[in-house]
Amino acid sequence: ISATMDTESTYSGYSHYSGHSKKAHRQGRDRHKSPRSKDGSRSEKSVTIQTPPAEPLLGNDASRAEEGQDDNWGETTTAITGTSEHSISQEDIARISKDLEDSVGLDCKRYLGLTVAAVLGLLVFLTPIAFILLPQILWRDDLEPCGTVCEGLFISVAFKLLILLIGTWALFFRQPKADLPRVFVFRALLLVLIFLFVFSYWLFYGVRILDSKDTNYQGIVQYAVSLVDALLFIHYLAIVLLELRQLQPMFTVKVVRSTDGESRYYSLGHLSIQRAALVVLENYYRDFTVYNPALLTASKSRAAKHMAGLKVYNVDGPGNNASGQSRAMIAAAARRRDSSHNELYYEEADHERRVRKRRARLVVAVEEAFTHIKRLQAEEQQKAPGEMMDPREAAQAIFPSMARALQKYLRTTRQQQYHSMESILQHLSFCITNNMTPKAFLERYLNPGPTLQYDRDRWFSKQWTLVSEEAVTSGLQDGIVFVLKCLDFSLVVNVKKIPFIKLSEEFIDPKSHKFVLRLQSETSV
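The structure corresponding to this sequence follows.
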């Protein structure tokens, strides 16, 4: 049975603050050089501890050669990788190809919708003005004089158009938050309604006013006022359909992340599936903790360790069938199944002990580092101008004293890939600038926060795929399940309708609150 050793990858962001010297690394590399140490592709500052390869089921020359190494070689062996300015992974290739395929279609659809909406909005605002100006341009001499009532209608049209312009800007002219796979049904219906409405007004205006050259100018202005009033009512209808209808909660959705099972509950109103998916994603980046695939490797490594610990020897010669080996492995795994829960218990207990220990060291190191920072008052700044530092310089001065403890804690909790040295220095400088306590500085690292707290390049997924059995433009219904997929994981959304609640009233007469004290003969009262 071969021993499986757990090794920890060294956090590259703090390599020049670690206490190991280059000489020790060089000696460790020469004594215990890993056979796979040349496969790395990180920068020259990166120091990676390579894990030993899993032994095959049948012994060979390579496995026998490795038996001569000591049991602690994995803790001291280091591999200095070559310099690489540009690196790319299979996930990056898949993401780039997906973005190239979808970018052209999404951009065309976005700009086409904006163009149609802008042209239609311009037509809506210019139509009442054209209704008033065309008679003045074409048959000015034949028009009846405009009286006081007619001139008052000019002011009414001007202010109503101003109100309509402000309302349209507040409701429709917003920065788009996402590209949906289908059109928004209510928005498309409103655009069609406005087009038909303006077209019918132009048709009536051309037949009854332009052809006959109507001389009643006050009636023409009144006709333009009626158009503006109708447009204001359509704007009110748009507010009801686009904003107010979805405010009342009607459904409860459960969102589960497929990898670690983290879940949240949200209340939604009458929304389509695609808009409900957009609301779920907005809440996901705010409420869910950042996705950390390193936390999911514990169970996989444990299973691999159990399988790697089983070695089958072929005592009957190479001519035997491999089925006997597989049966032997299955039987051995079944015998070890009863003791696996004990291993899991002790592994988790040891991990929690290490986390508490390194957390305590980190808290003490940060508190000691913050004691060296003192904010100078106005009169003190003039006394010692040579000793003053800005927040960035102060952060760089106290960071080395806490770097090692922070590095070990982040590696133990597997958060090192989300915190670069530059981001930590920026956060430390921010805390010093705002006179924050060490506890406020450590809050980001001791308690994993929401996804938005971290660097955008480390968690943001540009492309989400909506998978649903129903049409994405249909409304939410009880029992609907849809999935939001990205490159690394997926969100499973289950929709449940809020049940109808019936409340009854029961009246209690205030005079009924009367009581009698019953005394027994044995009491001392």
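The beta strands are 47-48, 79-80, 251-257, 263-268, 465-468, 481-485, 490-497.
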